[in-house]
Amino acid sequence: MILPIYTFGQPVLREVAEDIVPAEYPNLNELINNMYETMKNAEGVGLAAPQIGLPIRVVVVDLDVLSEDLPEYKGFLHAYINGHIVEKSEETDVMDEGCLSLPGIHESVRRALKVRVQYLDEDLKPHDEWVEGYLARVLQHEFDHLEGHVFVDRIGTLRKQMIKSKLVCLLKGKFRCGYKVKLNR
Ligand code: NI
How far is ligand 1, taken at its centre, from the CA of residue 26, in Å? Predict the structure, then answer.
């Protein structure tokens, strides 16, 4: 089922998301499948549960769409449950980002090159691993959502000033996008 995506201004995007107790989520697989479907429908590479209105630590990532250029991501479709970034490399780089919760906005963001993540996979198997490359970028963006941050929090004051009117339009619901959204009202 395709779910509406909560856009900039929705209070849930500013909440710190909680770990879940999987046993208390009998429909976890259904939730994850709905998130996959919602992400694909919106042509996103990642989606965090707060973006569908749930302040819980569940993230889905689909990097298969990049596999033409980055063959290592062929078939890459994963869920991250109770995910936390516990370490970051000192080396950083800058890349353009967008977000399904902020349609129409793209800005350069500086982030760590590598991050160490702890999470449960879809089978609830625990992982503790360093990731790099595009995946490190996407996980930092998505896990930011779990801490109540969006990517425009990480851009410079000047850039933020320059996109202020776009952000105001988002808050007022004055924008178009090709998927179902839940506006800030
Ligand atoms: Ni996002």
Answer: 26
